[in-house]
Amino acid sequence: MQNNTSTSFRGDSAAAFLNLVLACARPCPDAQAFQKLVRTYVAPLLPHRYSIAVFGCFTFDHLIIRQMVGVDYPQAYFARMPMQIKFGDRPVIVKWLSNREPLVIDPIRDRSLLTVFEAQEVDEFGLGRMGVHGVIDLSRNMAYFSFAGMSEMVSDERAKFILQSIAPHLHSALASMPTMPTADPQEPRLTPQERELTGWLVMGRSNSEIAKLRGCSATTVRNHLSALFRKLQVKTRAEAVAIAPNHGIGLRQPGTYCG
Amino acid sequence: METDDCTLTDSEGDAFLELVAACSKQCASVREFQSLVCTFVNPLLPHRSSIAVLGSMSFDHLAIHHVIGVDCPDRFVNTIPRYSKLADRPTVAKWLATREPVVVDPVRDKRFLSALERREIAACGQGRWATYGQIDLPSRMASYFSFAGVHALVNDRRAKFVLQLMTPHLHAALVSIPTLGMSNPKLARLTRLELELLVMLSAGRSVAEIAAARARSPSTIRNQTEALCRKLRVSTRAEAVALLAREPR
User: Fold this and answer.
1) Domain that holds residue A18
2) pLDDT values of chain B reduced to their tens digit, one per residue, 249 residues
3) Which of residues 70-129 of A touch B (CB under 8 A)?
4) Domain boundary among B151, B175, B199
5) Are B97 and B219 members of one domain?
6) What is this model's ipTM?
7) For residue A202, which residues of chain B lie inside 8 Å, CB to CB?
8) Looking at the domain assignment, is residue B110 inside a domain?
9) How far is CA A120 from CA A116, A117, A126, A244, B17, in A?
């Protein structure tokens, strides 16, 4: 049992957390239901002004946003939000991705952590103190939650604890929304030859090895590869291997654990 | 008594909050996940044994990518077919259709169960099974938890209620196991830090970006990358990334 009061739920906060858990266990029919859920059940635990839930996936240097659900967010913010975000522009997300632990950002204290772009955004929309956390999925997609204008009454440690406790439930509610897109229509479709070639890359084969396997010259392989990279919009071999799972290539051999 | 089934008393609330706290720490290994289930699930849902499955569905087939048995005989876990028809798994099919927990009683629900499920239940001993899972955001994969020999004092309604509370956390804990299903012994030997570096490289992050994220200098990251490649006995970064990409999940 944890004794520290900031990292435990007691009395009212325990009841509020259980209410949130129960609400998230019911399927969420649409975005409005999700917004209502956040307004009703997150606010008592983590007082904040507005929040955003993002569902997307990350490639080599981009975060591709597939869906956003804002709760009381200024409309102007959404209008400006690009659907593809460069990691370089978003150090907060990169920091979260690298240790996957909740983050609390104070716009004054943590100014140096923000890019010029982010700092402008924080000032313009009065985002204030922010708490962010997310969940990475089995398919390497992610749900990312950002709560802006968090009350000063909540310490950093407390906010992180709450974010950690509620994120799995918000994620599960978001995943139950039937409108969640199942595939990115913008992802290029690969031909069987291109799929095979990508498969060899995932196996770590060199150009000359692939040439032997396919019975063609290494130059042909090199040409095919550069065409493939163009189609996948990647620059290097490692990037191509990294995004192969998005095309269902290079995954899964069943494994077993007993105990 | 109906309403009592779907509430937690103070001590049950504490037990649940302990489970939440345990699951929010990342699981370092399969063994840690197993002990988590033993320690924290039993007070809420007394049961005999359980299995946790990561799998996906394609058309009318279910593919199992990983199985973790807890207090389950190895012999049983090894007999679970890696591919099966959805028609042979009515319990899973019911969960997929309703997205709600399913409790089956081998005697009461004999007609509902398939021959395969009846055999499996018989192999695991007496009592009810309580199952539930969590589907990921793009609906490609899912985790699925099945608790066998649920205690007679826990009624169906109660078991379903408790599963709804626990599953998002068990899912998060399961997904956080870094070496889950690493079949390559070279990868299984990596430290957490090395594995994180490899994951970042796999996401196509550059040395400069990794350095920024880790608050280290680019040369430190370059040295760490070289050490990682030596440890994996590969000569290029792409080969190292390929080793990880070849792993399941």
Assistant:
1) 5-175
2) 445 777 788 788 889 989 998 888 778 778 889 999 999 999 999 999 999 998 887 667 888 888 899 998 888 888 888 888 888 999 998 888 788 899 999 989 988 999 999 888 888 878 899 999 998 877 778 899 999 999 999 999 999 999 999 999 999 888 888 766 566 778 877 876 788 888 888 877 788 888 887 778 999 999 999 999 999 999 988 888 888 877 654
3) 87-88, 91, 94-95, 97-98, 100
4) B175
5) no
6) 0.71
7) 242, 245-246
8) yes
9) 6, 5, 10, 36, 39
